[in-house]
Amino acid sequence: MIYTNISINFIEEIIQEDINKGFPKKKLRFRFPPEPNGYLHIGHAKSICLNFGLAKKYKAFVNLRFDDTNPTKEENIYVNAIKNDIQWLGFIWDKECYASDCFEKLYKWAFQFIKEGKAYIDEQPQDIILKQRKTPFEPGIDSPYRTRPVRESLVLFKKMKDGKFEEGEGVLRAKINMKSANMNLRDPIMFRILKVIHQKTKNKWDVYPIYDWAHGQSDFIEKISHSLCSLEFENHRPLYEWYLKNIKKKERSKQIEFARLNISDTIMSKRKLYIVIKDGFVEDWDDPRLSSLRGLRRKGYTPESIRDFCHRIGISKRDNVINLKLLESSIREQLNKIAIRVMVVLNPLKLVIENYPEDKIEWFPAENNQESQKSGKRKIPLSKKLYIEREDFLEKATKTFHRLSIGKEVRLKNAYIIKGTGFLKESTGNIIEISAVYDTKSQSGSESSRRKIKCTLHWVDAIQTLDIETRQYELLFSLEVPDAKKYFLRFFNHHSLKIVHGYGEPFLRKVRPGEFFQFQRIGYFCVDQKSSSIIFNRTVILRQSHL
Ligand code: ATP
Ligand code: MG
């Protein structure tokens, strides 16, 4: 079943409780805050479905906020791609915001912090600052600049903003507590110098806020009521609270953390995705082997199936790894309802029907999808020669082999019952052709065809046929949780893409990019949207794939 609603989860319980305690429903506001430094992946989809799902449920606003605080890695192309992917997933945001919309305010508040002795300019190199912060098990060391006069920091901060310093020559740090057990409170950096062009503000700024300094304030400015973050931000929360307390803002959003989505057999961290793309292990962000939304989409995943998956996994507070099979079952269930069933032979073996007239061609009606009346019927040609799958023939049947063999009957799907009569073998032992006879009165659906036959085979006529190319994707790594391993590339499966040619019904001549099919007894396939020729990407195998 395809679910479209987000069910009750612990976050919703908290929101409901807030409402019960008097929080006005009309003040509910959510946001999805991507950094425009890459394409979205299925992990982001979890956060999107959560935030947009809640907004939909409570008829609340939801902002799309680009966290564009690191211009060295961010690009406009990602902004557009992210918007496009969210729309594709089926969601619409109320307001498009940018952390950079708040740069002016963040600068002013920082200036105020310096004036109040809550921030200072540190001129030490980054690596020294890092060393002085020590570890959670020992207190950090104060910077020699920590006690410098306020006036000095004010002048330097202004100079930094006006481009008078080079990168790395100074940072603005909050003066909190170098001995705090929470490392985030050990005088975190608020602003650093970056001499780069920002994708939105261009060359207006020479100083840029650190994500942590921008995030909570963006939530505050946008009046986000519930700020939903992944677990790693749990111990950033005291810092966000410290910042807001010190800019003297009472109304704050409630931050709630939830577990990130991890899926087995795949990588999701953008850093790792970059590596496999940049080093040429895969084609690009839309390579169907990736867990990026573009990759999944090209592979044949629908927005409904991804929303359904996000619903099924739910929202939890504890990290876990979801089995890839769950994602596959979501798409399989949907494709079962919408994909047109066709016959394709991928490992062909020629079959000649001895008693079938030489020049005769018959066209048999076939249902496009028995699960959906609307999908209609089409016609399939049959002549004297056809192809079946090599795996569907054995010279001598065994007890467990119910497919075609000499003396044994099978039904050709939508057509006749045939009986194996012989085969042609090369000197190498390779069978190159088989022969059979057909029962002239056994046409599918006819009165006289009631004979029970154990096995039905798919097949493709050898004359009225279409050469087709399929791309079959295997797992990218020979490791169950590659995302958890630093040296994940060692486990890269260099045979994860198989190009397999075969024969298909003539019906497939008219397919459109993005169209879904079930190749009977083989799997679900989707017409590639990028190639100029017709290529079928394997979305997922059938639950009990025969081949
Ligand atoms: P990555 O680690 O892949 O680079 P990120 O967190 O840096 O991801 P962002 O663009 O900052 O990527 O993420 C935007 C939002 O999506 C954040 O709120 C983040 O918590 C959420 N998000 C990212 N990855 C996941 C995931 N695997 N599961 C759930 N939410 C995620
Ligand atoms: Mg991030």
UniProtKB/TrEMBL annotation:
Protein name per UniProt: Glutamine--tRNA ligase
Lineage: Bacteria, Pseudomonadati, Bacteroidota, Flavobacteriia, Flavobacteriales
Single annotated GO MF: ATP binding
Biological process terms in GO annotation: glutaminyl-tRNA aminoacylation
EC number: 6.1.1.18
PROSITE patterns: AA_TRNA_LIGASE_I
Alphabetical UniProt keywords: Aminoacyl-tRNA synthetase, ATP-binding, Cytoplasm, Ligase, Nucleotide-binding, Protein biosynthesis
Gene: glnS
Family: Belongs to the class-I aminoacyl-tRNA synthetase family.
Keyword Cell wall biogenesis/degradation belongs to the record: no
Lineage top rank: taxon: Bacteria
GO CC, any one term: cytosol
Pfam families according to UniProt: tRNA-synt_1c, tRNA-synt_1c_C, tRNA-synt_1c_C2
Record-annotated Glutamyl/glutaminyl-tRNA synthetase class Ib anti-codon binding domain positions: 339-439
Keyword Ribosomal protein among record annotations: no
Catalysed transformations (reactions): tRNA(Gln) + L-glutamine + ATP = L-glutaminyl-tRNA(Gln) + AMP + diphosphate
EC top class named in words: ligase
Organism: Candidatus Uzinura diaspidicola str. ASNER
InterPro entries, per the entry: aa-tRNA-synth_I_CS (IPR001412), Gln-tRNA-synth (IPR004514), Gln/Glu-tRNA_Ligase (IPR050132), Glu/Gln-tRNA-synth (IPR000924), Glu/Gln-tRNA-synth_Ib_cat-dom (IPR020058), Glu/Gln-tRNA-synth_Ib_codon-bd (IPR020059), Rbsml_bL25/Gln-tRNA_synth_N (IPR020056), Ribosomal_bL25/Gln-tRNA_synth (IPR011035)
tRNA synthetases class I (E and Q) anti-codon binding domain boundaries: 456-528
Residue span, Glutamyl/glutaminyl-tRNA synthetase class Ib catalytic domain: 27-336
